[in-house]
Amino acid sequence: MDSRTYENNAEAIEAWDTVLFDKFSRFRDVLTRGFSIHGDALLDRHPLRAGSRVLDVGCGFGDTTLAIARRVGEGGEAVGIDAAARFIASARGDAESAGLQRAARFVVADVQSDPLGGPYDRVFSRFGTMFFASPVAALRNARRSLAKGALLTMVVWRKKEENALYFDAEQCVLQFVRPPEQTDQLTCGPGPFSMASPDLVSAQLEAAGFDRIAFERFDADICIGSSVEEAVDFAMALGPAGEVMRLAGEEGEKRKGEIVAALRELMVGKVRDGGVYAGTSTWLVSARA
Ligand SMILES: C[S@@+](CC[C@H](N)C(=O)[O-])C[C@H]1O[C@@H](n2cnc3c(N)ncnc32)[C@H](O)[C@@H]1O
């Protein structure tokens, strides 16, 4: 986990609306296909009733919000919230193309500090809750938007070492470059592994007013490219390896040839069934308001 403390979400939101939006857009297909395996596992574990009102926290491109809108049907409502305006603009465009602009609504808001509407029958999030400067304040705000007794369900990454997708590539890059101790580059706040500890997250959920807190481990291999080249590009741009490269700046550029060669060797070992596959591991978390 990032050891810095964050006063508010301003820097993280700017990062999501600029450099991270651009990177996510470039790898959108790979990301949403891989992330869907985990998001669908969460939805299957905690099925939604037809007619439910659902808030999708940190909805990104909103593919989950559209999937939820289809599941809850005409009498229900799916509201996608994201602090990055460019993700919301993209989500609104997709909802319109799918003819779901009435069933799925999208709002630009900071989940930690803005009104979230409601009451909802469910708060759902696929990897959208790990970036708050104050997770308890954000979870409390989410809890207040829920009907009494309703469920919050979220999928979050387990620790980095259990996610070969991220860990192996980062170890590979760290052989050649290290991120600087201090940086003036934008970063995404506490980061993708900030909710990996069930003890910590249970305490945060309890402090936010939830009870009946449960964690279920879910593991899946996901495809990070249809070729070794695609998988190397992915690792160079995204996740902890991509962050090391971005923050290392010129140092990374200087050693790019060696780093690409080492990543290529790593990815060759992960080829099967016409793609490059890497292990991932998450917690499917549920808690009652
Ligand atoms: C890893 S992405 C996940 C996106 C999407 N849920 C998915 O699975 O593809 C994290 C999302 O959380 C959003 N986010 C980060 N901090 C936020 C905040 N304080 N309030 C609302 N959304 C936030 C980001 O803009 C980004 O779209």
Structure, explained:
By secondary structure, the protein is an alpha/beta fold. The protein has one domain (10-288): Vaccinia Virus protein VP39 (Rossmann fold). 44% of the residues lie in helices and 22% in strands. The chain contains twelve helices and eight strands. The protein has helices at residues 10-17, 19-26, 28-45, 63-72, 85-97, 135-144, 164-174, 198-207, 228-237, 239-248, 250-254, 256-268; strands at 53-57, 77-82, 104-108, 120-126, 146-157, 211-223, 271-272, 275-288. Strands 1, 2, 3, 4, 5, 6, 7 and 8 form an eight-stranded mixed β-sheet that branches. Helix 5 (85-97) links the parallel strand 2 (77-82) and strand 3. Bound molecules: S-adenosylmethionine. S-adenosylmethionine is lined by residues 9, 12, 16, 32, 35, 58-60, 64, 81-84, 87, 110-112, 126-128, 131-132. The site of S-adenosylmethionine has 22 residues, from helix 1, helix 3 and strand 2.
Short recap of the structure:
The chain is α/β, with parallel strands linked by helices and 289 residues long. It has helices spanning 10-17, 19-26, 28-45, 63-72, 85-97, 135-144, 164-174, 198-207, 228-237, 239-248, 250-254, 256-268; strands spanning 53-57, 77-82, 104-108, 120-126, 146-157, 211-223, 271-272, 275-288. It binds S-adenosylmethionine.
